[in-house]
Amino acid sequence: MVWFRDALLGLLMLSGISHASPTGRRVPKHATIVDRRDISGNYTFIIAGGGIAGLTLADRLTEDPTARDVITEQSANQVVAFWTVSVLVIEAGPIDPGLDGILVPGAYAPYYYFWPNQFTVPQTGLNNRTIFAICAQVLGGGSAINAMVYIRGKAEDYNGWGLLGNPGWSWNNLLPYFMKSENFTRPNPAFAASANITWNEAVRGHTGPLQNSYASYIFPAAANWWNAARAVGFPAILDPNDGTKPGVFAMPSVVDARNGAYTRSYAKINHYDRVSASRPNYHILSSHTVSKIRFSGTKAIGVDFIPTAGGNASTAYAGLEVILAAGALHTPQILQLSGVGPRSLLQGLGIPVVADLPGVGQNLQDQPTLSVPYTFTNNKEPNSNTFANNATFNAEQRALYDAHQPSAYSIVASLSTNIAVLSLQDATPSYHGIARSAANANPADSLPAGTDPTVLAGYVAQRALILSQFESPNIGVGTVSWGTGDAAQVYHLRPLSRGSVNIASTDPLATPLIDYRTGTDPVDWRVYLAIFRKNRELFATPAMQALGPVEGAPFGLNVTTDEQIVAVMKDLVNPSNAHQCCTAAMLPKALGGVVSPQQKVYGVQGLRVADISFWPMEVSGAPTATMYAAGERLADVIKQEYSLI
Ligand SMILES: Cc1cc2nc3c(=O)[nH]c(=O)nc-3n(C[C@H](O)[C@H](O)[C@H](O)COP(=O)(O)OP(=O)(O)OC[C@H]3O[C@@H](n4cnc5c(N)ncnc54)[C@H](O)[C@@H]3O)c2cc1C
Ligand SMILES: *[C@@H]1O[C@H](CO)[C@@H](O)[C@H](O)[C@H]1NC(C)=O
Ligand SMILES: *[C@@H]1O[C@H](CO)[C@@H](O)[C@H](O)[C@H]1NC(C)=O
Ligand SMILES: *[C@@H]1O[C@H](CO)[C@@H](O)[C@H](O)[C@H]1NC(C)=O
Ligand SMILES: *[C@@H]1O[C@H](CO)[C@@H](O)[C@H](O)[C@H]1NC(C)=O
Ligand SMILES: *[C@@H]1O[C@H](CO)[C@@H](O)[C@H](O)[C@H]1NC(C)=O
Ligand SMILES: *[C@@H]1O[C@H](CO)[C@@H](O)[C@H](O)[C@H]1NC(C)=O
Ligand SMILES: *[C@@H]1O[C@H](CO)[C@@H](O)[C@H](O)[C@H]1NC(C)=O
């Protein structure tokens, strides 16, 4: 049926009780957490990184509708299962045993499983601050520890990726995968009406693995913020996930609300636990770090890996492909360690060059964040502070949650239940002037001196696209929100500044040089300032003034001029919302690209990038939704290429 099936036939053969491969390798009956001593054989695909993309792919590549138990003629008692594909996922982090802080939205602190000891280089655009660079190190990746926000980008985001030289990429192409990836549980109708929760049924999936819904509770002051957002001109939109214009909406959350329990639905649960009982061909090795891709010439044939705690390397081989899914800070690290990257960087470290790809590790983007402190003379009770201030309320809400009743514990702690995405014209009437002044600047001035000409060419193309997006009402540049507690959140979605991730050592466990370069392009401050001022305008409306808000130091109403506001922002802005992306960008090679529209790494064979590193540019949403869809899409691309479907 498939051309290479015979070659792989019997890769995994199962007998009734013991499971022996033709090479004598014993394989388990179910998808398994393997010990590295068991990894003596070969896999069809090896995936480096068990996050959203890695586990989505592993699930889809191991689902084989033609796999079945077969009674062989040779030995009547032997049951032999023919699996076309076997997959090994190697994940640097541990496996969460089911901590409250992971599964219960309202218990989302303290935080767990941050990649340890990882700091940026001094950020020259942010008063030389050195900042802890957050990303996940746990099975499930970011989906295990993120804030569960589910916001797709807009149609113009993905259409823009297509315009940058990626045929086959558009909103229309990705929409079926958004829908395939999710199972949207409709909220209780009466609650939805009272909380202004609306959705567009035409774009929501109801059969996918990712469980998706809304918190079952709102704090009363959320209505004040909603009305304030409407008063400053943000439209109330039907569904932030239908690709159309930005506006104000209730916060969709990656929560499993099927039985009223409201637990986190994350990649380990929805793309591993869900299928593990039926997948002898799906293996996971946790707490091990992929240190290097093995090449035969320029064909990737396997990976070296070491215990994340330190130790000697082992090797696993991949018959068809090695797939990198280690996230935007670590996929470029693996590539560079393996000799795929900027020639001068590799040669300086004595690494033999397998493929000279100047774009590897460049084009780093994120979505900077800012908390604006507020106190209130007249806030409504209860609010998100009441958890900490009132033990009775806290215990009462926890008991309701445990009884599967509507509860404030269904809200991700620290988060709001409504939010607005703003286009630049939603933020300021000066949007055209900002776009024009940006057009008059020399793009080369935004990148470090000595940037490779192809990387610069890619940036010139991205920048032209972003400036056109500045004039569009249908794409976002920022968000504002307020969780009813002591800060408003003001986020910047669409920076012009570009950073980098470059190794400084051949030690695979050493932190690479992470330089977000946030705020190095002056236009970013004009845009961020506009979003900041819009937030102030929102707090000045009667709906918010009824709560008696007082903007706190180091902001405050004495901080009025653009210069004063930006000066405080440089001290407070976090360069990252842990939305790092774009460091192995899908762009033509002449534009500094690292992967093709099929996500194949240029200049080598048998190697793809599945994680968020492949994005060419940030989207005007949050990454999770797009990464689940992109994982589904890539699985189909790979299956089609090898006739697996
Ligand atoms: C604290 C936090 C909050 C966030 N909040 C939100 C949110 O509310 N909404 C939203 O949409 N997005 C959010 N994000 C971002 C989102 O989770 C990520 O963008 C997304 O998980 C990226 O998916 P990925 O598949 O590219 O990589 P990841 O999910 O990050 O997975 C990468 C995996 O690779 C592993 N890895 C790395 N290097 C190696 C190696 N050398 N060998 C083996 N394994 C390796 C890592 O341990 C990790 O598990 C948040 C992220 C964090 C960390
Ligand atoms: C695995 O693949 C390698 C390299 O292709 C080969 O040398 C080795 O014999 C294979 N091992 C098994 C157990 O099939
Ligand atoms: C940041 O560091 C650079 C290089 O050391 C220096 O030139 C610059 O003046 C510093 N900026 C601030 C605001 O301290
Ligand atoms: C999807 O969710 C509904 C409840 O909203 C549930 O009845 C159904 O079983 C779920 N389907 C899947 C595939 O998870
Ligand atoms: C919902 O919207 C209506 C109409 O704009 C408004 O009156 C109400 O206060 C809002 N409620 C919430 C919880 O946002
Ligand atoms: C690592 O390899 C060396 C050399 O083969 C050996 O002496 C050492 O015991 C190994 N260490 C571990 C932790 O296995
Ligand atoms: C604390 O919460 C309880 C339960 O919701 C409520 O009855 C009580 O009034 C609250 N106390 C204060 C001081 O707000
Ligand atoms: C504004 O007032 C605060 C609090 O008094 C103070 O810390 C800050 O320096 C003032 N800022 C300016 C720009 O005057």
Automatic annotation (TrEMBL):
Residues 1-20 form the signal peptide. Gene3D superfamilies: FAD/NAD(P)-binding domain, Glucose Oxidase, domain 3. GO terms for biological process: secondary metabolite biosynthetic process. It comes from the Eukaryota. Its cofactor is FAD. The keyword Ligase does not apply. InterPro entries: FAD/NAD-bd_sf, GMC_OxRdtase, GMC_OxRdtase_N, GMC_OxRtase_C. Keywords: FAD, Flavoprotein, Signal. Pfam families: GMC_oxred_C, GMC_oxred_N. FAD binds at V138, N146, A147, M148, V149, V290. Residues 327-341 form the Glucose-methanol-choline oxidoreductase N-terminal domain. GO terms for molecular function: flavin adenine dinucleotide binding; oxidoreductase activity, acting on CH-OH group of donors. The keyword Aminoacyl-tRNA synthetase does not apply. PANTHER family: DEHYDROGENASE XPTC-RELATED, GLUCOSE-METHANOL-CHOLINE GMC OXIDOREDUCTASE. Belongs to the GMC oxidoreductase family. This is Glucose-methanol-choline oxidoreductase N-terminal domain-containing protein.
